[in-house]
Amino acid sequence: MSTGQRTRPFEMYETRVESIDNLSPRNVNVRFQLPQGKEKYFKAGQFVQIFVPREGDKPRRTAYSIASPPQLTDSFELCVTRVDGGVSSGYVHQLKKGDKVTVLGPLGRFTLPDNLPRDVVFIATGSGIAPFRSMVNDLLYKETDKNVYLLYGNRHDDDILYQKEWEKLASTEKNFKLYLTLSQPKNWTGPKGYVGSKIEEFIPNLKEKDYYICGLSTMIDSVKDKLRELEVPDSQIHFEKYD
Fold first, then answer.
1. Over the stretch 216-240, which tens digit does the pLDDT of each residue have?
2. What is d(CA 187, CA 72) in angstroms, rounded to the nearest whole number?
3. Is the whole model's pTM more than 0.90, yes or no?
């Protein structure tokens, strides 16, 4: 692994699938290896477009947030949820180690400033966690002096993505605060409810934080409304919708 913090204009890459890990019944983490001698420099929070082959037609291009930190430059990881009837997610889920995939990137402006002006709160549901896996690890690698909060919501016990990673970071990094909540738990003994309903409970000094939100539109709109109700300035609310 090589390290780097530079960024370049987007490029097209012919990647090779290096590994596929099942994260949950509907989610996989795929690592794509760049061609030998190639490196990708990106900012945490950016995305790539993968080219999905279609018989008799041009490839479909689908965007997925990069789920690995920028320090990993000779490969990158994507977290992909299988959508019923979804052409692109179906394509990713049938990939095998060694398969070649064409990728365009990096793209996107859902990124952090070079110097955080205040503590930061990441709020996500489902695979909306992907860009925050990149951002959190990047901030901790750089030894930020700000507190980093992650409020992550899911429905069921086995829907939590990268759970062991988050719990390890929370136990080793004193300025990383982890809060997991489930809306339809089975055996879960932790917090229960939607992420928007937990903001006041988990986040101190609400108006003194920057908020980054990622997931589906309904969740994002609900959380934005809640933050505005709590008098958080719009300038401190940032989001990226996955639909």
1. 999 999 999 999 999 999 999 999 9
2. 36
3. yes
